[in-house]
Amino acid sequence: MDADLDTLSRQVGEHLLARGWRLATAESCTGGWVAEVVTATAGSSGWFDCGFVTYSNDAKHALLGVSPMTLARHGAVSEQTTAAMASGTLERAEADLALSISGVAGPGGGSAAKPVGTVCFGWARAGEAAQTVTRHFDGDREAIRRQAVVFALTELIRRYP
Known about the structure:
Elements: H1 3-19, E1 23-27, H2 33-39, E2 48-53, H3 57-64, H4 68-74, H5 79-92, E3 97-103, E4 118-125, E5 131-136, H6 141-159
Parallel strand pairs: 1-2, 1-3
Antiparallel strand pairs: 3-4, 4-5
Helix pairs in contact: 1-6
């Protein structure tokens, strides 16, 4: 792991520990990269609970409870889906915060409505409605996925001060 991701992971850990919170993740296009980054930090068992890699729609439904209607109506890459992923993660984990990611990392799979680089995010805190946002990143598959990881963790700190 590079120094920037290491620093970010430590910052997330300090942030969560200071509040007594635990994190869980639900990832699609990042394939568990967020979980990898946070668990690379020694002591992360004190603030990280678990991670779900739900790449297929079937996995999003079976493991996180995302409604087939949501997936059919809005698609896997949508704020509606990432909100449901984050909420479903909280219901299934021993965590206070959840983050979710679903996107089009490329090089194929994009469309006019959701081009390569489109990534949707969700964050949820126990007892609160999920927050969502969509971002567009440039670069190849690895660059898009890395930017998504950095954005998800940076925003977690910003959204839950």
